[in-house]
């Protein structure tokens, strides 16, 4: 039993950080754009319409604010850990140092599911916008190649979703420097497109569309908050970049907090204008931002927005895959997963084999599995991770009170405790089928831990 709670010491983690083999190329600016690249995408271009129509109505803005508050509290906890222990693995690493190996493995296993499903789910959104763009030029993909089986559209494989994942995989396998440059350019384009929508849409807002403000009541607002949490998961990816940051103690807190603040303001502005332009009941579409502009007669701008949506969702894919590879890389380096996943390409200085394995698995899921139900797993996995990192901050303050911290969460243990409670509350608002699927995945993880990871762990030696 004692081996389940064995911990990696802080000194071990810091030593590991100094001996890291990944190239340090990221600045605070790069981290901020990395966070925005991950957070601004599916949330604005896809989820806003569905959640407004089915859960929250115009009170969608309150759902985004509640999720933003929960994320902000978690972001403070992430910032303290990332600046104190700047090493790959994010909440997996933090849990290993505070709560022990068993919980660390389970949250790492949870994060792997979260990111793989997120990559597959986001790629299907990319595929939808890409097909809409092609249709604008009179090009129609055969139905059999344009959607996954079980989606109700008669498809055999979602080929565009598979192709974009493999392109992103090839880019990431070459190196973070090249990936960073592509991400930064696409994020700037994405932000310009969103600002264009806000500036244009504000002139078409009809306050009458905001009545009734909360047609589904408070329960609908909370359900909406738990659902749009999917939109915020990207800032966790910033923490996974710790070993590739030039000045991690200074730059990581800036990147995590600034990216979340910018994204929350944009989500609030877009949801307010979107529900003001179109009656909420008509927003249950795959491309609500484009639909809203077409609704008010701005079809030419709608085409530009589609290009922005494709660009935005591409950056989400890039950062999600990057984060998934870094988590499994850290777990492999600790012996909890096969050694091959932590091997670094001698010339490219990237986890080459790990990146391609992740990309191929995600492409297969995106191409052949309908993700309507599975997408909820991303939310519950993220909330579980945020809850654990909040608890871990309290534990680390108690066990290592004199540890040098470049950034400190204020009002410990109060703020981390509120963060953990809020995440747990949002988890209880998710559908029962989500909890069942999550329990099955965690059960598989427990079997793997006791049959492989516990024996091969470096701490076991």
From TrEMBL:
Gene3D superfamilies: Amino acid/polyamine transporter I (1.20.1740.10). It comes from Metabacillus malikii. It comes from the Bacteria. It is a multi-pass membrane protein. The chain crosses the membrane at residues 28-53, 59-81, 102-126, 155-173, 185-204, 216-235, 256-280, 300-323, 352-369, 375-397, 409-427, 433-452. Keywords: Membrane, Transmembrane, Transmembrane helix, Transport. Its main location: membrane. It is found in: Membrane. The keyword NADP does not apply. This is APA family basic amino acid/polyamine antiporter. InterPro entries: AA/rel_permease1.
